[in-house]
Amino acid sequence: MKSLITKTLLRLSLMIIIASFISNSTEAQSALINDSLYKAGVENAGRLWGYAFGDFAYKSHSDSLSRGGSNQYTGIRPQTTMFQFRRIYLGYDYNISKKFSAELLLAAEDNFPPGAPPVGSAGGTTTSFSAGNSTGDLLTNQKMTFYIKNMNIRWKGIWKGTDLVVGEMATPAFPFISEKVWSYRSIERTISDIRRTPSYDFGVSLQGTFDPETKNFGYNLLAANGTSDKPDYTPYKWFYADVYAYLGHKHVVIDLYADYQRLNWSPTWKHSRQMIKGFLAWNSSATDKSMNPGSGYTIGVEGFINTLKNDNVAAKIAGGADTLTTAPSGISFYIHGDIIPNKLRFFARYDIYNPNNKVDQNTYKSYSGNTSNYNDNSFHTVYNGIAATPTVTYTTTGDQTYKQSFITAGLDFKAANRVHFMPNVWYNSYSSQIASNKDHDLVFRLTFFFAFGKNYDNGGF
Fold this sequence. Notes:
CATH topology: Porin
Helix content: under 10%
CATH architecture: Beta Barrel
Low-confidence stretches: 18-25, 129-133
Distance between the termini: 31 Å
Largest sheet: 16 strands, antiparallel, barrel
Number of domains: 1
């Protein structure tokens, strides 16, 4: 079914492109694919756009327990080299009228690398499968394919300064502000995105500003399924809320975000998650019109606390177990700026993440979380070394307490407008809170990024 829908959407997209080129009117062609006309709100104007990023990567060192779960390089053996796309976007935006516009976005994203540990393994189990087997946004034959990431309609100015959006759309969690100011999604996700707080979801949203003339203060509210592009399968919705303020002629931005979702609400188990996140950044090149994180210097910090109510089952040393409310937390610091304006930039970032603030070695011997992406196991990894029939064995250790420290740094060479090459280093360390083991993943990369159809150029939006 997913393959059929994808093929149908691709055919529709091709029909739009072909129609624009065979039109007898040059003016009509310009209106169908024109960024400036679309942004001006011209009726029947649309734009085709897209971008892609990927790398040539070399994994120098691999964590001995294959920890990291949702990161890009978990489970990949050391001395592995890779040419890979990590994201391909193809989008089409269209003004139905001055009051209504539609958005379609197709995405191909390799969320989990070939050879990664299987999803859903319980503590202490062993799973073997052929190297190259994978999960995520890949077909069963391991080929990348497009899926529907956004499809929505926007009612502009439902009241002054506010739009109503219905459908599958970007969430308020980070895509609108913190990811854009970080500016290097092509290098790594934001810290809450790494934990897979949804970047898109299906629901209804109000997006607006309190001061429509200057647009210095705004908000974004969304009630959605909480299942991204998957059909809804629970009675519980995910509620998102975000408010922001630009200060000092837009040189400073402050963003406050919160979300809430019930995961189970029976008489015996009331289970939920609730995130609070803050973001603060300064950009030297901002004007009263907007921030410009693609030039000058930018310094930012982003941090979150996610309260997981009655989520973690802690096995007692003396026998039995307690159900704990934990609060995973993370904080991210970064800086990027010009070396040679409009030609060469640098970037650097440091993250700290703690998945469990209730570790007590005097009382408990192990912990098992229930919330997706906060219940990461570690894996012992064994490779049989036979090139003809490579097999990887993963044995889970049940350790969900390990802290992580992430570092990335590199250069950003702008070869042309919207074309970037970025040599960089990617490092993630792991340190258990219940065992004396520390290790890390280390990857060296030459990342590339290119875009078309939109007037943005900020080094990897």
